[in-house]
Structure formats: structure tokens, C-alpha cells
Amino acid sequence: EPEVTQTPSHQVTQMGQEVILRCVPISNHLYFYWYRQILGQKVEFLVSFYNNEISEKSEIFDDQFSVERPDGSNFTLKIRSTKLEDSAMYFCASNPTGSETQYFGPGTRLLVL
Amino acid sequence: AQSVAQPEDQVNVAEGNPLTVKCTYSVSGNPYLFWYVQYPNRGLQFLLKYITGDNLVKGSYGFEAEFNKSQTSFHLKKPSALVSDSALYFCAVKGTGANNLFFGTGTRLTVIP
Q1: Given this model, what pLDDT does residue A100 score?
Q2: Predicted confidence (pLDDT) per residue in A9-37, tens digit
Q3: Integer Cα distance of A100 and B111 in angstroms
């Protein structure tokens, strides 16, 4: 069964550094999302992406965040200058046209020191 | 504005007994309702959804949920709990026309052998 994959599974970075989190959505899906889950808290929406542009974003998704679909398979989340409070599990999700069900990847655990 | 309430942080149930994990929601328009399960160090796995139609929906691993419009609830149920059902369960809602899922705070289910 096709799955959303994410790399790396864990990333440790220094405050102020740039990180890129990578996702490969399910191949026939056209809608892509990033969510995050701070330890012990609920899952929060960051951004949705369709047709090579952002379709919706939350107030969390400020100017330090960006998303890109650099090729036909990858979907990336870049955090330009990481802060301590960016430490969280970041989940990528995707869904196909005509379905409301979002399928999530295993997540990338980001730790900012 | 969307909101989801999972009133119980923790639910304990004996193996073989029925289980219920509660969820109530608030959303504009018709709700799209979902349950996801998260096992330790894993991503979110889709269990079931309500979009329209029959109020009782059946999902993976023997789980089911009942949509109750008057009570704005979508409780997750299973007739006979297994130890392997022990995990963190998230209820999520999406409003009509919205892209993102809005998650509850999660309920940790522990099935006691």
C-alpha cells in the first residue's frame, strides 16, 4: 500500500540554522500539507499546497517558513532561521482529488538547540 | 471557527470490554469528521471518517464511530478492546470548503490485559 514518506526521521540543529524537511507524498495525490506537533500537544496545521502554490496557511506559518515542490515527487518544508520553539514533530500529509482523507507520513522530529 | 474537544486525556479499559473515546466538535457548515491513531514514535494513521450518509461509520481494526448532529459528537467505539489498541487517538474536523484538519488534543487509550 502506498505511503507518505519523510526524511530525515530525526534532525538536530542549532538555533538560527536553516533546515529542510523532505516529504514524498503518495504518487497520485495532488494536495499536500504540513502539520506540526509540539511534544505533548495537539497536531497543528501549518500549510496546504495545491497546483504549485500555497492554498491555505495558518498564523504559525510566518515568513521563516516556506514550502516547495522542487520536482514531481518531493515536497519540502524549509525553516529559514530556526528557533527553540520550532522543536516539534513535523508531519507531511497528502490526499487525492475527490477524497477528504489525508494520509500522514511518519514525521520528522526536529530538535533545535 | 473550528474546534474539537476530547474531554478525556486518558481512557483505561479492560481487554475484551467495549471502549468509547469521546469527541465533540464545532464547525461552520457541514462537518467532515475523522479519527486518527498514533502509536509510539509513529505517524498518524487514518481510522475512519464521516462525510455524509449513514451516521454510523466503520473503519479499520474493528473501530466504528457515530455521528450525532444534535449533540455535535463523533465518539469512537469498539465492541471488544485489544491490548494492541493502546495508543493515542485524535479526533479531527474539517469544515466545508476548508483545506486543513483541526485536531483535538488527543486521548490516550490504555487497554489493560
Answers
A1: 86
A2: 999 999 999 999 999 999 889 999 999 99
A3: 30
